[in-house]
Amino acid sequence: MGEIVLSAENLSAGYGSLVIQHDLNFAIRQGEVFVIMGGSGCGKSTLLRHLIGLQAPLAGRVLLHGEDFWAHADEQRAELQQQFGVLYQNGALWGAMTLHENIVLPLTTYRPQLSAAECRELAEIKLALVGLAGCADLYPAELSGGMRKRAALARALALDPQVLFFDEPSAGLDPLSSLALDELILQLRDSLGASIVLVTHELPSIYRVADTCLFLDNQTRTQIAYGPLQQLLEQGPPVVRRFLQRGEGPAAAEES
Hints:
Oligomer: single chain
Helix content: 25-40%
Strand order of the largest sheet: 6-7-8-3-9-10
Order of helices and strands: EEEHEEHEHHHEHEHEEHHH
Number of helices: 10
């Protein structure tokens, strides 16, 4: 694996006085798929908000290339956030805009030196990268659920991020669409060398794509397992092994 891109030191996640998770320590390396998992309500999406710069952690630090992200002023953080691409659970595409217009929006905001023709070309490149070549002039409502996820991913790729975040990407997708999205995630990891952070509780996806896993526990409100997937399967705490082996376990991914 590559160098550490993003890490957490003694981080507490939550809102106001509500601490959902505490004492989180982990590192995300270049070119790996890092999966944040755990039961419902354990704070996965809350932790994601701290990592992508939407909300400051209650305590501890988020380090981007070794520097404290939240120690920077607002303007500097906004610049650093351009290194992040985010695929939200619902896609968050603008329904009144074509796919081209959705993808060009961050380009016109953060790359004003680009001409309209250059933006159009980049939008078409990103759409082709996610398997949507020729779809630039379609609207989100004209797409299937899986295609909307891909279009939202194309927009997340607009600024060539170093870290891609996925919040429950398989939500609302049928098994075949979920499989196709997982395969695309691996293709992007390999072709772009980006770090990928995936929040999910979907076992098939975990088994297909995970390099490193972080397990957040509801009871202790902290991480109880962190490491390669196979290590967690063989040596993780009982609750983690039960989580990973529920239902079909690895067979679910093989049959999908």
